[in-house]
Write a structure and sequence with these properties.
The protein has 4 helices and no strands. The chain is an all-alpha fold. It is flat and about 65 Å long.
Amino acid sequence: MNAKNLIAAAAVFAITGSAFAQASSEYVDFSNFVSTKSRAEVQAELAQANAQAQLAGNTEYVEFGKLASTTPRAQVRTELTAAQATVGSSPEYVEFKNVVSSKTRAEVRHEALQAAGGARQVVGG
């Protein structure tokens, strides 16, 4: 039973890992970067920018103060109910309630193994 669980978990990780690998396009490789400035020059620029208040500090925040809403509470609740009703039809939101599979455990396992490329790993052997 443990071996089956490990194989299924490995198949799921392989599938999700490849999905996330394709989705990440924000990574930029700076391993071959060569700086044209010395460390002292960069530190001097940083000190100058900090002195001129050009850098965002960790203590910056937006203070809203006392905000007074002009919308009545009943209208806000009505808008919330309407928004919650449309969320169910949004392609960005999926709610699973009482999901019943039409496939057997063996069929799901077979699909997972196919998705993982049919690779089988012997665990503990």
